[in-house]
Task: inverse folding
């Protein structure tokens, strides 16, 4: 196995140990980041006179050729190498000779992998932000198109009060907006450069850490070299953000699953985002929504594993931290895939508006508004609450909604009822009267705010 160490050893490492210790099979994903970090390090070493101009040019040319060869497929990132760092360095030495052996001057694999991971997580945060922005755009479009789509809002999965589909999806817009903002915050906080920290205590070479940080678009170098190589809290924060994103996707998936059921029939999934049954020809299953819901636990597992891995590590670097990669890579891939699928599924979904409205009427979601009607007529709310409760029971016994209950039934409960009760409890009236900030009657302003946010992140 190609290794960057060995002079101190008199025996060959056991092959099983080599396999157990090696990480190329998964940290190969850091290839581009490793090249970028190495190019910046070589440029800084050259500027500081630690490498000659000729050596710096040879290393820069060699790294560029390795990158090009890998991108074209002429160079496969595989073989008997311990990790991505040894792969790049060995190939560099093979291309340019002894000058390649000088690239690692003033650098340890500890700060090398730390900068690779920061670059990688930063890149992935940017990609995740783009996907969330696209999802937000789809949600905003649903809001714009459904300000007059009346439905019941739910508590305890019971019909509660009238809202609109726009208002319902407005809640998810706010959730995903916070997810986006959380990613921005994490990126800002993690954008410091550990390169130059060495193994843990810096180096005696006159490194220009500010230059390296600038070349790699970091805000500044890390303040403490031990911290630079030994913490992965930015990975944990990102996994936490991904877990919250998945939680929001899972909640929305659960509603889609419920709304797609025969009992609800609020939505019709596009055929491209549904599957059938191998035995029951009538089935159209919401498998994508179910898989998003199921994969949420997978991302949670990555967060928990990372927390457990880091919880008792003494300073500074420990090999345990090699375990940060596979689980993180999987969580990133899973979450990005789920965001993309949710965006497509929502964008192609059809809403059964008439059924939603009829369901709201049949579920007595306007009962609170009927009580408020009596309060406006001078009836104390607690008395009004009891009267409407009895009228709901009467509706149930007659098999009608409150909109269909004869006025005589209302007046038998209270002389305060008049013909205008029907207007007062219409779904449109119930929604339009709720004008407090954030309520369904204020959707034009809420949608305008959502569009303004989207224009600011596009």
Result:
């Amino acid at each position: 196995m190609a290794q960057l160490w060995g002079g101190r050893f008199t025996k060959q490492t056991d092959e099983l140990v080599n396999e157990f210790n090696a990480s190329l099979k998964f940290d190969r994903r850091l290839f581009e980041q490793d090249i970028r970090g190495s190019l910046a390090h070589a440029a800084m070493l050259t500027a500081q006179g630690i490498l000659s101009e000729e050596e710096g040019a040879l290393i820069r040319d060699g790294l560029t050729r390795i990158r090009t060869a890998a991108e074209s497929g002429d160079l496969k990132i595989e073989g008997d190498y311990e990790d991505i760092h040894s792969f790049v360095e060995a190939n560099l030495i093979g291309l340019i000779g002894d000058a390649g052996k000088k690239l690692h001057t003033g650098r340890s694999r500890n700060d090398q992998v730390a900068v690779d991971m920061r670059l990688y997580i930063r890149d992935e945060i940017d990609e995740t932000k783009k996907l969330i922005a696209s999802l937000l755009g789809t949600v905003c479009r649903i809001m714009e198109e459904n300000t007059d789509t009346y439905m019941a809002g739910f508590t305890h999965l019971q019909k509660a009060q009238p809202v609109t589909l726009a208002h319902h999806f407005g809640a998810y817009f706010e959730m995903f907006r916070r997810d986006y903002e959380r990613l921005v915050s994490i990126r800002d906080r993690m954008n410091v450069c550990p390169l130059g920290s060495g193994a843990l205590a810096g180096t005696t070479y006159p490194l220009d850490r500010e230059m390296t940080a600038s070349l790699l678009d970091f805000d500044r170098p890390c303040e403490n070299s031990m911290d630079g190589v030994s913490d992965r809290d930015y990975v944990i924060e990102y996994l936490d953000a991904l877990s919250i994103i998945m939680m929001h996707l899972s909640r929305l998936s659960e509603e889609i699953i419920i709304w797609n059921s025969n009992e609800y029939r609020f939505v019709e999934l596009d055929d491209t985002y549904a599957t059938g049954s191998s035995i029951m020809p009538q089935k159209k299953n919401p498998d994508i929504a179910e898989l998003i819901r199921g994969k949420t636990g997978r991302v949670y597992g990555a967060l928990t594993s990372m927390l457990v891995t880091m919880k008792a590590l003494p300073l500074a670097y420990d090999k345990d931290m090699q375990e940060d990669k596979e689980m993180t890579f999987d969580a990133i891939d899973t979450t990005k895939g789920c965001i993309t699928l949710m965006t497509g599924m929502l964008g192609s979904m059809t809403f059964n508006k008439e059924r939603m409205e009829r369901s709201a009427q049949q579920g007595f979601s306007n009962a609170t508004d009927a009580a408020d009607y009596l309060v406006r007529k001078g009836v104390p709310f607690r008395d009004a609450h009891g009267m409407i409760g009895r009228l709901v029971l009467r509706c149930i016994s007659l098999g009608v909604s409150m909109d269909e209950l004869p006025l005589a039934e209302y007046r038998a409960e209270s002389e305060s009822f008049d013909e205008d009760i029907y207007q007062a409890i219409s779904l449109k009236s119930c929604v339009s009267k709720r004008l407090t900030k954030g309520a369904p009657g204020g959707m034009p302003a809420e949608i305008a705010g959502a569009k303004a946010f989207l224009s600011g992140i596009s």
Remarks:
- The chain has a mean pLDDT of 94.
- The chain has three domains: 15-105, 119-147+165-204+223-353, 362-457.
- The beta strands are 150-155, 158-164, 192-193, 220-221, 267-268, 350-351.
